[in-house]
Amino acid sequence: MAGKFIRKTKRHLNLYFVLVIVVGVFFFAGLRYGKIIKNSPFWYFGRINFALLGNQSVSIFSLEGNEARLLEFSPQEKIDLPRGFGEYELRKIYQLGELEKRGGQLSLETFQNSLNFPVVGYFYQDDLKFGNYTLLSDFKKIIGRSIRKKIKTNLNLTDLLILYFRTKRISPLLFKKFEYRSEMDDFFKDEQIRREALAVEILNGTQHQGLAQKAAELWENLGGRIIRVADHSEQLSQSLLIARGESNKSYSYEIMKHFFKPDCRDLNGEENRADMTLILGDDYWKNMTEKW
């Protein structure tokens, strides 16, 4: 009788031990996955812009809250590419970059550095005409096919899942189409950046002319407020973002870090009209011009 009781007690202890391990594994996995989710730009970006690329169709899909927009390009539109590639049609950029196994990178850099459009991701398939995707449900199919690796993308599984659930919030009544070069002044504006309205100055810390103006145009496309564009008194090898007051806790600060990849410094007590100062270094220039 005592032996039976002991065996039963051991079984209960073993079951309890296994249960504790399982709960612990799920708990720590949840913590880890939660950190992964929060590191995804799609978790904290208000407006998300990504490129839909094919041989016969090029567009940018943008979403914010329950509203979505589609910016359509002529695939034959010629663009002066970064990294010294010269002028090419938009539809050929991905394949051109793939000669160096960097089709997606060249596509994103073209939108960001040549057109000053704040695009954070891409979807590509050779023979897919994204112009046929007119319903929001079809964009979810694009995401689903990307999860199954049927469509090429730079987004990981976490990004795709976040994007999928964000598209479920979109109202079909708030889905609009635009054409490149017409009625697109506010296309990329991020409402949270607009609301914060932080005063930003952008300085060129290199010998290359026009760099600060290009960066300022990208920030203004996002809805940011530029109060000064000028040359910096010193040359920098690495871009630097200086935050004053509480601006280092702002949404705008995080977005600027994402697009410009600067070193960061907090500076208080200095008299300056700017809440944030971005000083562009040679690293920013090299990302636009350095050949692979």
TrEMBL record:
It comes from the Bacteria. The chain crosses the membrane at residues 12-31. Residues 198-284 form the LytR/CpsA/Psr regulator C-terminal domain. Pfam families: LytR_C (PF13399). Keywords: Membrane, Transmembrane, Transmembrane helix. InterPro entries: LytR/CpsA/Psr_C. This is LytR/CpsA/Psr regulator C-terminal domain-containing protein. It comes from Candidatus Shapirobacteria bacterium CG03_land_8_20_14_0_80_40_19.
